[in-house]
């Protein structure tokens, strides 16, 4: 809903001559319905956006299948979706830098700007964050949304609305690379070739990483990673007893020490591999959160002074994402593998496609 709107029910009467706003509501497990969605009033610093592109994230699928993602639990009907871009339709009285007709990418989280974390610049950790489609806040898979103007970023002429929506997942990779200080002298290992693993790989290359090895259990995802520029791919198993042998394969593929490992899956096996593969004095960045708790070999890693850092969402990433995309340093278009319209049938098919895995990387709605 933007503006931090809570879930208070679905329907709102459209004014005479005004189109009724519709959205995809999560009503229960495997139960999505397109229903009316009443927008909040347009505040002086807000804009109203005609949503044109929305990607499906793994968290959206988690909510659909289980009504929860990590510690966030859906307790009442909620509009889903948070990876989005659209066209400005109306601006608040104090908005100076955007006008109707501007194409924008939306950063989906509204922080309080009052807590110590916000004041330190780490607003992504704000305890009062209101984030699209994180209960009880409504999301953006809707015809229209209202959102703060300062969280809407104008797209360069050569960046499409779909690419604008892809700034959200790319932001995860960019934030991870910043946390890990990736640069031209950093050899990178990426654990997992799913959507977040792939955007982290692309971001690491844009930050200057000279050599990148990526691992996964799936041949198709590895082939995609290779096509997108991975220097070496390593197929691994889900079995924890194979870690030592697979670390040897990773080192052979890297042809040097692993300076930074990104665990983009977040399982016991992937984190154990990342910790074991990273050189003494290197860094492991935990990006994925497959397990809420893990048992991993921290003591040997600590003895080699391997630093472990985590990430949560992102901060101040949209301008850099747009620069990477508009300059051609990162091409997000190959990641969009499936497209759907905004009808009841297509919404259901799109989520089935995303949840089914297979050759789907990013499933995108065109509204």
From TrEMBL:
InterPro entries from the xrefs? ADH-like_C, ADH-like_N, ADH_Zn_CS, ER, GroES-like_sf, NAD(P)-bd_dom_sf, SDH-like
Requisite cofactors: Zn(2+)
The Enoyl reductase (ER) domain covers which part of the protein? 28-365
Gene3D superfamilies from the entry?
Medium-chain alcohol dehydrogenases, catalytic domain, NAD(P)-binding Rossmann-like Domain
Name-wise, this protein is Enoyl reductase (ER) domain-containing protein
List GO molecular-function terms, semicolon-separated.
Answer: oxidoreductase activity, acting on the CH-OH group of donors, NAD or NADP as acceptor; zinc ion binding
Q: Which family does it belong to?
A: Belongs to the zinc-containing alcohol dehydrogenase family.
Q: Which Pfam families match?
A: ADH_N, ADH_zinc_N
- The question of whether Transport is a record keyword is answered with no
Q: Which UniProt keywords apply?
A: Metal-binding, NAD, Oxidoreductase, Zinc
